[in-house]
Known about the structure:
By secondary structure, the protein is of the alpha/beta class. The chain contains 21 helices and ten strands. The protein starts with 16 loop residues before the first helix and ends in a 14-residue tail after the last helix.
Amino acid sequence: MAGPRPDRDMPKAKISRESIKESLILFRYLKPYRGYFIGGLVFIALSAVSTMLFPFLVGQMVNAATGTTQGSQMTGSLSKAFNGINFKPSTWSLNTILLLVFIQLGFQFLFSYMRLYMLSQSGTKATADLRKDLFSKLLNLPLSFFSSQKVGELNSRIAADTGQIQDTISFVLAEFLRGIMTLIIGIFLIFYISQKLAFIMLAIVPLLAILAVAFGRQIRGLSRKETDMLAESGNVVNEALHGITVVKAFTSEKLETKRYQSSISELVNFAIKNATYRGLFVSSMIFTVFGAIAFVIWEGANMIHAGTLENGDLVAFVVYSAFVGGTFAGFADMFSQVQKTIGATQRVREILRESNESELWSTLASTNSENIHLKGNIEVKDVHFSYPSRQDVEVLKGISFEVKAGQQIALVGSSGSGKSTIAQLLLAFYKPGKGSISFDGMPAENFTLEQLRQNLALVPQDILLFGGTVYENILYGNSAATLNQVEEAAKRANAHNFITGFPEGYQTMVGERGIQLSGGQRQRIAIARAILKDPAILILDEATSSLDSESEKLVQDALDELMKGRTSIVIAHRLSTIRNADKILVLDKGTIIEQGTHEALTAIEHGMYRHLSSLQFDFPEKTSFSSLSK
């Protein structure tokens, strides 16, 4: 059963003047390596010329073997072109021609190696530069871009799309140019040897084109459907294995097996149908091509008997015809590769054309890139906000609050009330739709994104550690820190003891996304990272909500150490962690409905905070929360 090829899934683009022009823009990445690229083009030409000498030498070998003494059209013309060199076969022995063949093959080896080496050099290095620019571009795009994109697709653009471009520069382009030269030289030579035989051979081209069009469209449609059917059968496997506990709990092994067998049976029947069409196509092509060759040889043999063609010229003609036919056949695949490359280029260019986050941020930001140390004062004034992907839904509705340097402010409310959105606005991941945010009395737009974010640190609920060592993950907070500073940050985060308990200490690999560590350990490493950064403003997004009691105590102690002397914005579901906050903001549906200290808010009889407290503490509530909405 024929399976789908990966290249079928690579989208193709229509070839047009605009798409070609857009693709050529990426060739600017070849500019630093143009020496290699131009050298590769030169060796392509030399390789094509060298290749076309082979049929001529084979023909002369046949003439020498058959004892031909009369020069052919080709040898006669070559003798006139190169005065002093006798190209007549009567002067060449079999040994001489064999030696010339191996000399030609030696040059062919050198030219082919050099063209591939030089084009690979230019293509690989140019693509590496493109990948670096593409990755850098992705890192500098606004968060709104990623909300509408899948990470797998973006990774595919860096890997698969740029790989397609690299293959085209390094190999497809070389083969295409070499094919063009081979085609031109080959057609010229077969007409030079015998116009009659050339017209006979080329007469099959329209027939081949008709066969290719007739079968090609049908085969492509069947192949796409076969790919979809295989994906569907894969979904059955994926669902069954991911839900293996449910399958076993309901003793549905036979049911799932039957589902898969049904899917595979349909796929088998369809694959056989697809293979039938492919077999008819290939068989028709073979019959047509070899029938034409047989007819050419038959006609050539008659011409030899008539004395109008030499034995060697007929052999040369057949070999040249094979070269021309093979080149024609190769163009179909090359054309498909070019379509894929244009499609890949368009997708890459879409990313490169996106505006950087800094370009969308503000024109008021200082061009001075020096670090600015904020005191930690924050003022949020009448902020309204809707996410770019949901412009019709207003997440924040006139939010206003003020934070003095060193204060701890807590944000409380149900899911979707806008707590995390406020944190994202403070980090300048998005800009308010209306209203303003100021730091130390200056609008946020007066700072560059780098200056602003250097003064903020985020400790989220779901900690992401990078797949390196513990030391490298803590150092992420300040790449210029020393080992002693890293260890001191780990001690303050209650992480030093468990880190030194590992056999490899700070050089312990944390695994992909920190999978080798427990939740509490990951949290403390993230806190150590934030301590090392030493920010003026700290944002804690439910940093202890998913931990057990013992881990929460260790992490909370580390957070208390982290919050000393700096402005802290704490998003919390566990109200026990924010009892000592200087101010608590209670949000509901994008607005602040209550604010004050823990004691002041719990004194409000019908307040939301009082209700939330009653759910978590042994705090008597006189009124049910359901009555608040009445």
